[in-house]
């Protein structure tokens, strides 16, 4: 529009925004039919919108997505480990399986990652159950724990030379405390691996599965270390 | 916010968030950092369960993170100044910023490059409004939520900003402005044909 144009600038802007209706809109349209300057402004605006809409959407790198997952998982792993200790030491219930307690007032340290909520809860229950077995030292075969489809074998007593290490993946660290119940630790680790396998099977992609598997492994390592500490002659 | 909601937002918005940050910051690495931090904060801190409220929270977070980056660069300027009034230092800073990241090589065509260049040279507060209005397609009310302003004020600011942008493009692109409509049409035809 130029300075000689009788159309108020705000009216033309409102027209460009599509905010006019009825009489005012017809007024602007009539004006545009004989005002080349304002007509050009409208054309420019339309061109500008096309230019913006034609800007390509840049794909977020996969590495960034993985870092997001890893960042959320790290915080949750720490929380999960604290939960294990708290639940065992204070005999309080594990947290809710999904999401953060709305009334917690905490803003950091989500308890369980979104993709890991249910499985980790199952794993925690399983681990706690396993710790109980270690405490009892001996006992009958345990029932299926947390729906994993796996029955706990009765932990053996004695001072075996770490038989657990023979059939566990290398990334599962059993610990180095003297006199610990290696068989029980192996049972627990095996159960954890089954749960981890289920998590991987239920995740949607390799990256997610990898992140979940690593997270659960981390949780199991922590819980195993705690369990070993509680054994007679353990580090604790 | 439940698991499925966060997952949907992450999958649905990550490209949008990254694109916005990349365009606004003109730097791929900064955009990656902003994208990562925005989603982590969404998961850790967002008080809204989902829906438009969560998206608005995410947009505000992205916006604030971009401002943080720009402040670290020493470029954030809330003044609605005309570029002609900018100090030599401002112009020097904008000149560096206008050296667009190679990530933006995907942007093709003289018009789009001129558009990005003009946006990069505008004061951050001004270009931000234009990005939110045109690229994000937000209404004035939604922009006001993001920038924590009043919708009427935002509306006036957007109007002023787009007039300024049109003026800049008019100066840079022969035939873009109202005074050369015929030339613009010819230029568009040539560009479309190239």
Describe the structure.
The complex is a heterodimer of chains A (236) and B (194). Helix content of chain A is 56%, strand content 0%. Chain A has seven helices and no strands. Chain A has helices spanning 9-17, 23-32, 36-54, 62-90, 117-136, 182-202, 206-230. In chain A, helix 6 packs antiparallel against helix 7 (206-230). Chain A is rod-shaped and about 90 Å long. Chain A starts with 8 loop residues before the first helix and ends in a 6-residue tail after the last helix. Mean pLDDT of chain A is 60; it is low at 91-117 and 131-180. Chain B is mainly α. At the A-B interface, helix 1, helix 3 and helix 4 of A face helix 1, helix 2, helix 5, helix 8 and helix 9 of B.
What key attributes describe this structure?
heterodimer; A: 236 residues; mainly alpha; 7 helices; rod-shaped; B: 194 residues; 9 helices; 0% strand; globular; disordered C terminus
Q: Layout of SSEs?
A:
The complex is a heterodimer of chains A (236) and B (194).
Chain A: H1 9-17, H2 23-32, H3 36-54, H4 62-90, H5 117-136, H6 182-202, H7 206-230
Helix pairs in contact in A: 4-7, 5-6, 5-7, 6-7
Chain B: H1 3-25, H2 28-45, H3 51-73, H4 88-97, H5 110-121, H6 124-135, H7 140-147, H8 151-172, H9 181-193
Tally of DSSP β-strands of chain B? 0
Taking pLDDT < 50 over at least 5 consecutive residues as the criterion, the unreliable ranges of chain B are 77-100, 179-194
- What share of the residues of chain A does DSSP label as strand, in percent? under 5%
Distance between the termini of chain A: 82 Å
Overall average residue pLDDT of chain A:
60
**N to C succession of SSEs of chain A:** HHHHHHH
Instruction: Give the averaged pLDDT of chain B, no decimals.
Output: 75
Please give the largest β-sheet of chain A: none
Shape type of chain A: rod-shaped
The major β-sheet of chain B equals: none
Count the E strands of chain A. 0
Q: Tell me the overall shape of chain B.
A: globular
Fraction of residues in H or I helices of chain A: 55-70%
Q: Could you state the order of secondary-structure elements of chain B as H and E?
A: HHHHHHHHH
Radius of gyration based on Cα positions of chain B? 18 Å
């Amino acid at each position: 529009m130029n300075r000689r144009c009788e159309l108020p600038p705000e009216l033309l802007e409102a027209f460009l925004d599509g905010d006019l209706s009825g009489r005012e809109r017809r007024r602007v349209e009539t004006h545009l039919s004989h005002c080349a300057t304002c007509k050009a402004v409208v054309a420019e605006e339309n061109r500008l919108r096309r230019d913006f809409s034609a800007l390509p959407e840049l794909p977020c790198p996969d590495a960034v997505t993985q870092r997001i997952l890893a960042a959320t998982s790290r915080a949750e792993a720490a929380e999960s480990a604290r939960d294990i200790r708290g639940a065992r030491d204070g005999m309080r219930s594990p947290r809710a399986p999904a999401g953060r307690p709305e009334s917690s007032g905490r803003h950091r340290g989500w308890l369980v990652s979104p993709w890991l909520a249910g499985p980790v809860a199952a794993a925690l229950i399983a681990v706690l159950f396993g710790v109980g077995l270690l405490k009892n030292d001996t006992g009958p075969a345990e029932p299926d724990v947390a729906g994993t489809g796996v029955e706990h074998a009765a932990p053996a007593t004695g001072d075996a030379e770490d038989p657990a290490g023979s059939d566990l993946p290398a990334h599962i660290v059993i610990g180095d405390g003297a006199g610990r119940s290696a068989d029980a630790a192996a049972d627990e680790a095996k159960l954890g691996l089954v749960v981890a396998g289920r998590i991987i099977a239920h995740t949607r992609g390799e990256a997610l599965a990898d992140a979940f598997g690593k997270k659960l492994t981390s949780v199991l390592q922590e819980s195993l270390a705690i369990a070993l500490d509680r054994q007679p002659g353990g580090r604790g | 916010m439940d698991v499925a909601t966060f997952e949907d937002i992450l999958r649905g918005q990550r490209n949008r968030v990254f694109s916005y940050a990349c365009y606004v910051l003109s730097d791929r690495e900064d955009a990656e950092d902003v994208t990562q931090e925005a989603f982590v904060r969404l998961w850790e801190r967002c008080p809204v369960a989902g829906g438009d409220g969560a998206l608005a929270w995410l947009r505000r977070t992205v916006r604030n993170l971009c401002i943080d980056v720009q402040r670290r660069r020493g470029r954030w300027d809330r003044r609605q100044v005309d570029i002609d009034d900018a100090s030599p230092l401002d112009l020097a800073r904008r000149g560096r910023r206008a050296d667009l990241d190679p990530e933006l090589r995907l942007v093709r065509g003289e018009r789009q490059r001129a558009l990005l260049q003009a946006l990069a040279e505008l004061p951050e507060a001004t270009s931000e409004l234009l990005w939110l209005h045109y690229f994000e397609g937000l209404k004035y009310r939604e922009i006001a939520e993001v920038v924590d302003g009043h919708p009427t004020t935002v509306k006036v600011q957007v109007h002023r900003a787009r007039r300024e942008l049109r003026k800049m493009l008019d100066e840079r692109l022969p035939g873009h402005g109202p005074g050369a409509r015929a030339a613009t049409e010819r230029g568009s035809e040539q560009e479309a044909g190239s």
